Amino acid sequence: LLWTDVALASDEARDMSSLVQPGMRAVSIRAEGKGSTLVRSGDRVDLIGTFPKPGSSEHRAAVVLVQNVLVMARGGNVDRPTATDGADLTLSLSVANAQLVAVAAERGRLSVALRNPDDVRVQEGLAEVSSTTLLELERRAAARAPTGPTRVDSR
């Protein structure tokens, strides 16, 4: 499916419902983060949810929810989003993915990763990444760093 397949509706029928493909749903979300400002109508994105870790008030986990999603509009405007539109995005999702995204939006924050238009691959088996994973990487890096003065031989 190409954006031109969707965007060729007549000028009179440019309302959003006429652009929704059969079997799909137009779902609006509020995407967090600066990366969402790069997104335009017709782009494809991966949708990422960030949620509190169970039993922890300070640790969070990020999960890729849906990949290769068509952005139908940004800020409610199919043609030209304005600078004040922020990160309100309308995505084309299956009914099952619309349900998943609705629950995810209630539980945490949503962000998007912009895809190359030629990259249609979906990666299977992606693991969640948590803030504890980042802390562990920082600890490993600190353990490898020199801890004191280093002798330099000046011969």
Helix-strand layout with pairing:
Layout: H1 3-7, H2 16-19, E1 24-30, E2 44-52, E3 60-74, E4 88-94, H3 95-107, E5 109-114, E6 129-130, H4 131-144
Antiparallel strand pairs: 1-4, 2-3, 2-5, 3-4, 3-6
Task: Walk me through the structure.
- With 155 residues, the chain is α+β, with helices and mostly antiparallel strands.
- Helices cover 23% and strands 30% of the residues.
- The protein is built from 4 helices and 6 strands.
- The protein has helices spanning 3-7, 16-19, 95-107, 131-144, and strands at residues 24-30, 44-52, 60-74, 88-94, 109-114, 129-130.
- Strands 1, 2, 3, 4, 5 and 6 form a 6-stranded antiparallel β-sheet that branches.
- A hairpin with a 7-residue loop joins strand 2 and strand 3 (60-74).
- The relative contact order is 0.21.
- Residues 9-13 and 81-86 have low confidence and may be disordered.
Structural class determined from secondary elements: alpha+beta
The SSE order reads: HHEEEEHEEH
Shape: elongated
Mean pLDDT: 81
Treating each run of at least 4 consecutive H or I residues as one helix, how many helices? 4
- Strand content of the residues, in percent? 25-35%
Short key terms for the protein model shown above:
alpha+beta, 6 strands, six-stranded antiparallel β-sheet, elongated
At a glance:
Helices cover 23% and strands 30% of the residues. The protein has helices spanning 3-7, 16-19, 95-107, 131-144; strands at residues 24-30, 44-52, 60-74, 88-94, 109-114, 129-130.
